[in-house]
Specification:
This protein is an alpha+beta fold and 380 residues long. 26% of the residues lie in helices and 44% in strands.
Length: 380
């Protein structure tokens, strides 16, 4: 039903102005209420949508942060394990290399002897066959302080990795070269300056190859009044490398060597010596392989002929490591038979056996070595 549009018409239809105004007011109020309800629903809908988008954005941000935290923790853990494995590898390799080098007899032994006597006996002369055995030692006419030596030891070893079980055997080729200057500074006092480089090549287990460089400087003093007792104080820098890659260093050590040796001449052809030796580590680039060695030894040598001699040494070494509370005691026996072709060239048969007992059972081992060497040594 249509309502009258004009006031007159509405009056004629019986609708009063007051009632008409009341109806308009109610209609406007309802319209405003409906409008506010629609606007509120729109606001709430927009607010809910914005909150959902914010929650989704916040959840993605939190997830990304947690993801990066997990990655960081994993990377840090892997780095710790990698550093630990590297340190363990360095420790094992350096310790094994030092022990192998210590047990494998050095092809070079200093030729300095007191009062100008060479190798503990008289210098050979063309008239010796006519004179027979000499009872008086002859003095060397001229002392030669420079020494150049090259040696090529080859030997079989029964325990490559120096382990208590599951031993691996191999053949080792260990060429070495040394150059030293040993001037006579005063009566009985000699200097010692030079270097020696040796590389150990393993036949089948090439991962164990290593090189060792020793640079040394020090003094050697003989005291004739005390049975020619020898006192030695040397500085030694030892540098270990992977194989023959001289730039690929994995360990270096600074050491002080202190040695006292008392010789006993049993006869013209036989001699014994008793001595103590200390090798103190005063600095290294890795701490775990560092150790101090305290050694006592007894040696015997006999010249069976003018060209053929035999040497034997028994040693007991206590090794005190700087870290991990490790202490080892090694018993080592070695024997060498040497034939001198001339004053510069020697051929030797070498052998040694070592038993190591540690307060940490994993470092116990036995190892035997046997082989030979050719050495060229020139003094000038």
């Amino acid at each position: 039903m249509n309502r009258p549009s004009s006031p007159v018409a509405r009056k004629q239809c019986g609708i009063s102005p007051v009632r008409d105004r009341l109806g308009q007011a109610l209609h406007q109020n309802k319209a405003q209420t409906l409008s506010r309800g629609v606007n509120r629903r729109r606001f709430l809908t927009h607010e809910t949508s914005t909150a959902k988008r914010g929650n989704r954005a916040g959840g993605a941000s939190a997830l990304a942060k947690n993801y990066f935290k997990v990655l960081f923790v994993c990377a840090a853990t892997m780095s710790i394990f990698a550093l630990s494995a590297f340190a363990q590898t360095v420790t094992t390799s350096a310790d094994r290399a030092q022990l192998v080098q210590d047990q494998a007899q050095s092809p070079y032994t200093p030729g300095v002897t007191p009062e100008g006597i060479e190798d503990g006996h008289a210098v050979e002369s063309p008239n010796d066959p006519d004179l027979g055995q000499q009872e008086i030692l002859k003095r060397v006419v001229q002392y030669n302080p420079w020494v150049f030596s090259i040696a090529t030891p080859v030997f079989y070893t029964s325990n490559v990795a120096l382990t208590p079980s599951g031993e691996l055997s191999d053949v080792v080729f260990a060429p070495a070269a040394a150059f030293f200057y040993e001037p006579q500074l005063a009566r009985g006092l000699y200097g010692h300056f030079g270097a020696q480089q040796q590389v150990f090549y393993y036949g089948d287990n090439t991962a164990f190859d290593f090189g060792s460089l020793d640079c040394q400087a020090g003094l050697t003093y003989f005291i004739p009044q005390w049975h020619n007792v020898m006192l030695r104080a040397w500085y030694d820098f030892n540098r270990l490398t992977n194989g023959d890659r001289l730039g690929d260093e994995f360990f270096s050590n600074h050491g002080i060597i202190l040695n006292a040796e008392l010789p006993f001449r049993l006869s013209r052809a036989q001699q014994m010596a008793i001595g103590v030796d200390t090798n103190l580590s005063v600095g290294a680039d890795h701490q775990s392989p560092r150790r101090n060695d305290y050694e006592g030894y007894l040696g015997y040598s006999v010249d069976l002929t003018r060209s053929f001699s035999v040497h034997a040494v028994g040693r007991v070494v206590a090794r005190d490591y700087h870290q991990n509370g490790r202490t080892d005691v090694s018993e080592i026996i070695s024997a060498t038979a040497t034939y001198r072709l001339n004053n510069m060239l020697w051929i030797s048969a070498i052998s040694s056996f070592a038993h190591n007992d540690s307060n940490q059972d994993v470092f116990d081992y036995n190892v035997g070595n046997v082989g030979g060497a050719v050495e060229l040594s020139i003094r000038f």
